[in-house]
C-alpha cells in the first residue's frame, strides 16, 4: 500500500498484537472428556432401542435418541470456537508513524442500506450516515452511499436535509472533539453546554422536525423544495413510480472537491442510490442492494476499502476506520486479508436484557474463537472489506465483465459528469446481474449475507475480529418479543438455505476453510436444528410422565450420573464463557431462557417454513423488523416485562410447552405424595420443573397481568387445545 515508510535502522511501531486466551488448554481437555460422555450416552440409547419390546418404548427411545444426536452435533460444532480463541489489540495512534501523510490514507466507500421509511425512520438512517461522515479520517477519502430499496422520496428528502446539516456538524465535531458523532446520541447525552452547542442542537431538531413532518404528510410538497435541482430530483417520482417498479435514481448530495463546510473545509461524498426495480425481476433483498452499491461505487469512486453498515447501526467511535486500517495497512497480512469484522453492539437494552438481544455469543464470544482459526464470520454490518476480495485472490484475480468495475480501475472523472452518471445508472439496472457473476458477490440465494464469507475465506483464507473496549458501532435492537422472534425466524430460514445448499459449510466450507472452520460455520448454518431437541424435551418426557412412563434412569443408576454430567457440564461451560466475556449471572439466565423460547418458536417455525419452501409450498415473504416502538412498549421493556400482546402463532408452541410442563410437574408431585417411587420420575420432573421456572414470564402474561402486553386470549385457548390434543394422542399411543 502506498504511503508506507521505509525503515533501514529499526522496525516500524506495531499496529496490532494478539494473544491466546489462557483457558484454551482446559477447553480442549473438557472437550475430550465430554466427547467420551456423549459416546457413552449414544451407547446407552442403542441399548434402550435394542431392549424396546413395545411400540411405546420404541417411539420414546427413538425420539430421545434423535434429540440427543442433534444436541451432540450442535455441541460438537460449538467446540470449534473454543479450540484457539485469541484477543487482539490495535494501536491507531501509531498509524501516523507508518503512513506519511493524509493523502496516502486509502479511500473508503461506506454502504448503508434501508428499505422502508416507515419501519426504518429516515432520521435514524441520517444519524448513521452522519456518524461515519464525521470519522476522524481524511474527509476527501470518505464516500457514503445510501441504498434506498424502498425508492422513497421521503428518504431522499431526509438526506438532502442531512447534507446541509453535515456542513455544520462535521466542523463542530472536529472543533469540540466530539466522540458520539451521531447527533441524536450526542444531544441526548450529558454534553457540555455552550451557545455553539445549543445553536447546532436547535439546527438538528429543526431538521428532525422537518423530516418527521414530511413522513406524516407522505410526500414532499412544494413548500419544502428549495431549488430547481431538488425539484428535478423529485420529479422522478411520477404516478407510475412505486417501490416495486421504478427506474434507477442516483442523486449526488455532497461531492468532495466541490462542496465545503462552513469553515471552508472539504466535504466527503454523499450519494443516494435507489436501484431499478421491476415486478418481473427478483431483487434479492439486501444482498441485491449490496451488489448494486458495489457496482455503482466502482464507477463513481472505487475505493479500495468498503464498509457495510446497517441503517440503524451508528458509529460510536470516530477512530474505528483507523482501527481497521491497523490491519489493512499491515504488509505482513495484507495480501491474504479479506475483511475486518467489528461486533454488533446494541443500545436501548433493558438492564437484564430479557430478550437476549445482545447476542453475546454470536457477536462477541464465538468470533474470538473463529479469529484464532482463520477469522470471524461476516455478520452483515460493521465490516471493512478489501474491495479486491470480490474479484479473487492475489494470484487468482477474476476480471469483471466491464473494465470500469475492476478494483484496479482509476476514477479520473467528476462523479457528477455525464459519462460517470450514465454508467452508474446502467450498472444499477435490475437486469444487469443476469447471466453474470454479480449475483454471487453478495449471495442472492438467501436473505442473509452468509455465503459471501465462505467464498472470501476460500480465496484469501483470513479475516480479523476487531473488538475494542469502546464499542465501534451501536445499533437498535427489538424491544418487542414478536419482532425479535420474527427477525430470528428470517435468519433461520436464510441460514438453512445455505446449510443445505451446494455451499454448505459442512462440505464446501470444510474443504475451503478446513474442518474446524467448517464446523464453526455449520454451527450457524444449522442453528435452527436446535428446535428439534428443544421441542422433544419440552413435550415428550412430560407426556410420558402424565401417562406414568419413566424414560430416564433412576437416580441411583450409573447412567443417571452420565445425564447429570452432560447437563451440568454443558451449562457450566456455557456460563463460564458468558461470564468471562463480561456478562452477568442474570443476563446469562435470561440468555439461556431465550434460547429455549427461540427453540419453541422462531427456530421451529423457521425450520417448518424452510421445509415447506423446499417442497414448493408458498410461505410468508421477507419482512423487515420495525424500528418504530410506542412509548408503552418501551416502558414495559425498560421494566424488564415481556411483551405478549400480539396473537402470534409463534407464541402457541411456547405457551403450550409452559402449560404442559406446569401440569406434568404438579402431576409428578401428586404421584410422589401418593407413594410412587420418586427415583424413576426425578429426571422427568427435573426437566418439567426447569422448563416451568424458565416459563415464568409466560405464566405472568397468562394469569397475572392486565396491561396490553399480556398474553392474548386467542393464544391461550389455542395453546390449551394443542396440549389437550397432544395428551390424547400420547395416551392412545403410549398405552396401546
How does this structure look, described?
With 736 residues, the chain is an alpha/beta fold. The chain folds into two domains: 379 residues, Spore Coat Polysaccharide Biosynthesis Protein SpsA, Chain A (Alpha-Beta Complex), CATH 3.90.550.10; 233 residues, no CATH class. The chain has 25 helices and 13 strands. The protein has an eight-stranded mixed β-sheet, sandwiched between helices. Strands 8-13-10 form a three-stranded mixed β-sheet. A two-stranded antiparallel ribbon has the order 1-2.
Descriptive key words:
disordered N terminus, globular, single chain, eight-stranded mixed beta sheet, transmembrane helix, 25 helices, 736 residues, alpha/beta, Nucleotide-diphossugar_trans, Spore Coat Polysaccharide Biosynthesis Protein SpsA, Chain A, 13 strands, 2 domains, three-stranded mixed beta sheet
Amino acid at each position: 500500500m502506498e504511503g508506507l515508510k521505509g525503515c533501514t535502522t529499526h522496525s516500524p511501531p506495531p499496529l496490532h498484537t494478539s494473544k491466546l486466551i489462557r483457558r484454551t488448554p482446559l477447553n480442549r481437555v473438557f472437550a475430550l472428556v465430554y466427547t467420551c460422555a456423549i459416546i457413552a450416552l449414544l451407547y446407552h440409547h442403542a441399548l434402550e432401542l435394542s431392549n424396546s419390546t413395545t411400540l411405546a418404548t420404541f417411539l420414546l427411545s427413538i425420539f430421545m435418541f434423535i434429540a440427543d444426536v442433534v444436541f451432540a452435533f450442535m455441541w460438537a460444532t460449538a467446540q470449534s470456537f473454543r479450540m484457539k480463541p485469541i484477543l487482539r489489540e490495535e494501536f491507531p495512534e501509531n498509524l501516523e508513524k507508518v503512513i506519511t501523510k493524509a493523502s496516502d490514507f486509502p479511500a473508503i466507500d461506506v454502504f448503508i442500506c434501508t428499505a422502508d421509511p416507515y419501519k426504518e425512520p429516515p432520521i435514524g438512517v441520517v444519524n448513521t450516515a452522519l456518524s461515519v461522515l464525521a470519522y476522524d479520517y481524511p474527509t476527501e477519502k470518505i464516500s457514503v452511499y445510501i441504498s434506498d430499496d424502498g425508492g422513497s422520496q421521503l428518504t431522499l428528502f431526509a438526506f438532502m436535509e442531512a447534507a446541509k446539516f453535515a456542513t455544520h456538524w462535521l466542523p463542530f465535531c472536529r472543533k469540540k472533539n466530539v466522540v458520539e458523532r451521531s447527533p441524536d446520541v450526542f444531544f441526548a447525552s450529558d454534553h457540555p453546554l455552550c451557545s455553539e452547542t445549543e445553536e447546532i442542537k436547535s439546527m438538528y431538531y429543526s431538521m428532525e422536525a422537518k423530516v418527521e413532518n414530511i413522513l406524516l404528510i407522505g410526500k414532499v410538497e412544494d413548500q419544502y423544495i428549495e431549488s430547481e435541482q431538488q425539484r428535478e430530483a423529485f420529479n422522478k417520482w411520477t404516478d407510475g413510480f412505486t417501490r416495486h417498479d421504478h427506474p434507477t435514481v442516483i442523486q449526488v448530495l455532497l461531492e468532495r472537491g466541490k462542496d465545503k463546510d462552513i469553515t471552508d473545509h472539504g466535504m466527503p461524498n454523499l450519494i443516494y442510490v435507489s436501484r431499478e426495480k421491476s415486478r418481473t425481476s427478483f431483487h434479492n433483498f439486501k444482498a441485491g442492494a449490496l451488489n448494486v452499491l458495489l457496482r455503482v461505487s466502482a464507477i463513481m469512486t472505487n475505493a479500495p476499502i468498503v464498509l457495510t453498515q446497517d441503517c440503524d447501526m451508528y458509529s460510536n467511535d470516530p477512530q474505528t476506520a483507523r482501527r481497521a486500517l491497523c490491519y489493512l495497512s499491515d504488509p505482513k497480512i495484507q495480501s491474504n486479508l479479506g475483511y475486518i469484522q467489528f461486533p454488533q453492539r446494541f443500545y436501548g437494552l433493558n438492564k437484564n436484557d430479557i430478550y437476549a438481544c445482545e447476542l453475546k455469543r454470536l457477536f462477541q464470544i464465538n468470533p474470538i474463537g473463529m479469529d484464532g482459526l482463520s477469522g470471524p464470520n461476516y455478520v452483515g454490518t460493521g465490516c471493512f472489506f478489501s474491495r479486491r476480495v470480490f474479484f479473487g485472490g492475489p494470484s487468482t484475480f477474476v476480471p469483471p465483465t466491464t473494465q470500469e468495475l475492476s478494483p484496479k480501475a482509476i476514477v479520473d472523472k467528476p462523479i457528477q459528469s455525464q459519462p460517470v452518471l450514465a454508467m452508474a445508472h446502467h450498472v444499477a439496472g435490475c437486469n444487469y446481474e443476469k447471466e453474470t457473476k454479480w449475483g454471487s458477490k453478495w449471495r442472492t440465494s438467501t436473505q442473509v449475507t452468509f455465503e459471501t464469507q465462505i467464498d472470501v475465506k476460500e480465496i484469501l483464507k483470513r479475516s480479523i475480529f476487531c473488538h475494542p473496549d469502546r464499542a465501534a458501532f451501536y445499533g437498535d435492537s427489538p424491544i418487542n418479543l414478536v419482532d425479535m422472534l420474527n427477525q430470528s425466524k428470517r435468519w433461520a430460514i436464510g441460514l438453512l438455505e445455505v446449510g443445505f445448499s451446494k455451499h454448505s459449510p459442512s462440505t464446501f466450507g470444510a474443504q475451503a476453510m478446513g474442518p474446524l472452520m467448517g464446523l464453526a460455520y455449520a454451527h450457524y448454518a444449522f442453528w435452527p436444528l436446535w428446535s428439534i431437541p428443544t421441542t422433544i424435551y419440552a413435550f415428550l418426557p412430560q407426556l410420558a410422565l402424565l401417562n406414568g412412563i419413566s424414560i430416564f434412569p433412576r437416580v441411583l443408576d450409573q447412567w443417571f450420573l452420565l445425564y447429570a454430567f452432560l447437563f451440568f457440564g454443558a451449562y457450566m461451560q456455557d456460563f463460564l464463557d458468558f461470564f468471562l466475556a463480561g456478562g452477568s449471572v442474570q443476563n446469562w439466565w435470561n440468555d439461556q431462557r431465550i434460547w429455549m423460547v427461540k427453540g419453541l418458536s422462531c427456530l421451529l417455525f423457521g425450520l417448518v417454513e424452510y421445509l415447506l419452501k423446499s417442497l414448493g409450498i408458498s410461505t410468508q415473504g421477507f419482512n423487515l423488523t420495525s424500528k418504530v416502538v410506542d412509548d408503552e412498549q418501551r416502558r414495559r421493556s425498560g421494566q424488564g416485562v415481556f411483551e405478549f400482546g400480539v396473537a402470534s402463532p409463534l407464541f402457541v408452541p411456547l405457551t403450550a410447552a409452559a402449560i404442559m410442563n406446569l401440569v406434568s410437574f404438579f402431576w409428578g408431585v401428586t404421584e410422589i405424595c401418593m407413594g410412587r417411587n420418586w427415583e424413576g420420575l426425578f429426571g422427568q420432573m427435573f426437566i418439567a420443573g426447569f422448563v416451568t421456572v424458565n416459563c415464568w414470564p409466560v405464566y405472568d402474561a397468562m394469569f397475572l397481568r392486565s396491561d396490553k402486553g399480556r398474553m392474548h386470549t386467542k393464544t391461550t385457548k389455542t395453546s390449551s387445545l394443542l396440549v389437550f390434543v397432544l395428551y390424547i394422542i400420547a395416551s392412545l399411543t403410549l398405552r396401546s
